[in-house]
Amino acid sequence: MNLVESEVGDVAILAIEGDVDAGSAPDVEQRLRELMQSAKYKLVLDLEGVPYVSSAFLRVVLAAARDLRRQGGDLRLANPQYPVRSVFDLAGFSGLLKIYDDLPSAISSYRI
User: Fold this and answer.
1) What is the model's pTM?
2) Domain regions of the chain by residue span
3) Residue of 6, 27, 109, 112 with fewest CB within 10 Å of its CB?
4) Which alpha helices (DSSP H) does 11-102 contain, by range?
């Protein structure tokens, strides 16, 4: 798994490449925590390069969204491939998280 960071204005983007399972989810969690500690409260996870996620990743995403919302921010998900989107749907997380089909939509959602 590889993590690539970028920013558009005040929105931090963390692009994930590769599977996110029990072995790699802690790396995503650590990076999200570091971003929050550096006052990045508008975050987008770009999932275009993620073919598979486990329940460990679901827990990381839900906890990060909860923590960001407590700090006045939020977490958006962008570009989920069909299998990944299905996992979020089946777990009932689609109603709890803001999921966008593309990165520009996820970024611009912070400006609405």
Assistant:
1) 0.94
2) 2-111
3) 112
4) 25-37, 55-70, 82-90
